[in-house]
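Run log, item B.
One chain of 199 residues. Sequence copied directly from the ordering sheet:
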Amino acid sequence: MINSIDTNIYNSIFKLNSELTTLIMAFISHLGSATILIMLCVVFAILQKTRKISLLVTLNLAISYTLNSIIKLIVARPRPNVLPLVYEEGYSFPSGHAMVCTAFYGFLIYITYKNVKNKFLKNAIIYGLNLLIFLIGISRIYLGVHYATDVLGGFIIGIVYLVLFIIIINKVKSKKIENKKIDSKLKNKNKEVKNKIVK
């Protein structure tokens, strides 16, 4: 049944085949490559005023990429048995582009939601990045380097990972704020004790 789903989706998408479509799909796919994502991390680090956010963006990319590589080795699913339009090495499931881009661009969506005040700009970035993630997944099927189920699996695993990543960083952040409050209270108490002793 999985093979049937993969074949039907691939055939449906590949009906769009043309030189122009291939160029567009190859370009979109490239936006999910390791080179582009690393470059975006560097740009983000330069533009961001707060170092914490840029470090989290880089950490998120490193963890999601490593996790994807581990899962690929465990599952060890071969690439599709079709003539690919671009060359790719390694195993097929889950799609690294789909999974890592869901985690990476998804985290940028989260940062945008939390920090961008302008409603129009916020919505434009969020919808734009969501569309990009989807199109990157479609491009991998069109180019013949992944099954549809590889891409779907990448999306699902990427979302689950991203939710856990955000939960963890928020808990760590809350813990630090709580510790600061406790330290502040202790300092105030120490000052009160010192003032009493002086008196």
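Observations after the first pass:
- The two ends are 83 Å apart (CA to CA).
- The domain at 2-198 is CATH 1.20.144 (Vanadium-containing Chloroperoxidase; domain 1).
Flagged for discussion on Thursday.
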